[in-house]
């Protein structure tokens, strides 16, 4: 099995932020505007996620379309989990943020105890990939809870939320270039891009009365989906060219 995770490039982070934003606005659109409700939306998205994740696990190499579709669906499901706890079960955002932090820490602990590494550059077994996707799910759930806690419970608002989480990511990048462990820096940035994307999505989609720009969830979701599709198409074409060149080199 080849490494099942894409290289960490600028395109990777752009798609990641776009995917988190689509997860926020897409879940809101289906649950509220379409009228499916949180439970039905969560069930549909969870079923789609299971099917896509099965295809991702079945593949023997990294396939951009399958990988990023799985990320988008994980984003939606992670958002739905947090929203269900907050809205339906009335769990405090403080409690859910703490619970998801513990769950993510336990996932990393089990992953490291089993594999002796948390590196994303060696996702070459099914077990490592299962740990990877479990960690991804909890980062989305934690990011959603932490983002809602900051922008709603603590009253920062969408604009300040974008600035705060964007600034924290800049600090992580700076720490990485100053010598902080690359694996730690990656996962910190991965967690922080979730509340950044959620705050950005809310800022663009929510009405001006609530501090947003009033673009609506439909326009925001379709614009960001278009960006994701364009970037994933570019990555797929580039990856195919690289593999073709590698085959030619082997034949020579």
From TrEMBL:
Transmembrane annotation, as ranges: 29-55, 62-81, 93-114, 130-150, 156-177, 184-201, 221-239
Keywords per UniProt: Membrane, Transmembrane, Transmembrane helix
Lineage, opening ranks: Bacteria, Pseudomonadati, Pseudomonadota, Alphaproteobacteria, Acetobacterales
Protein name listed in UniProt: Membrane-anchored protein
A Pfam family matched in the record: DUF347
Organism this protein belongs to: Dankookia rubra
InterPro entries: DUF347
């Amino acid at each position: 099995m080849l490494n099942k995770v894409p290289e960490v490039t600028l395109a990777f982070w752009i798609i990641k932020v776009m995917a988190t934003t689509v997860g926020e606005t897409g879940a809101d659109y289906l649950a509220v505007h379409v009228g499916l409700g949180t439970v039905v939306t969560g069930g549909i998205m969870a079923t789609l996620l299971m099917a896509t994740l099965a295809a991702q696990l079945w593949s023997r190499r990294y396939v951009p379309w399958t990988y990023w579709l799985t990320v988008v669906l994980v984003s939606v499901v992670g958002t739905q989990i947090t929203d269900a706890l907050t809205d339906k079960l009335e769990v405090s955002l403080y409690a859910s943020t703490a619970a998801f932090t513990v769950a993510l820490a336990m996932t990393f602990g089990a992953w490291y105890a089993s594999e002796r590494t948390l590196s994303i550059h060696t996702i070459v077994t099914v077990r490592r990939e299962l740990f990877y996707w479990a960690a991804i799910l909890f980062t989305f759930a934690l990011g959603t809870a932490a983002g809602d806690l900051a922008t709603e419970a603590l009253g920062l608002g969408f604009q300040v939320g974008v600035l705060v989480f964007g600034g924290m990511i800049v600090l992580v990048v700076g720490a990485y270039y100053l010598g902080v462990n690359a694996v730690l820096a990656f996962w910190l940035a991965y967690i922080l891009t979730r509340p950044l994307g959620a705050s950005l999505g809310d800022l663009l989609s929510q009405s001006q009365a609530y501090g947003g720009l009033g673009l609506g969830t439909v326009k925001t979701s379709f614009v960001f989906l278009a960006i994701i599709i364009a970037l994933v198409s570019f990555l797929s074409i580039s990856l195919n060219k690289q593999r073709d060149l590698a085959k030619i080199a082997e034949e020579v």
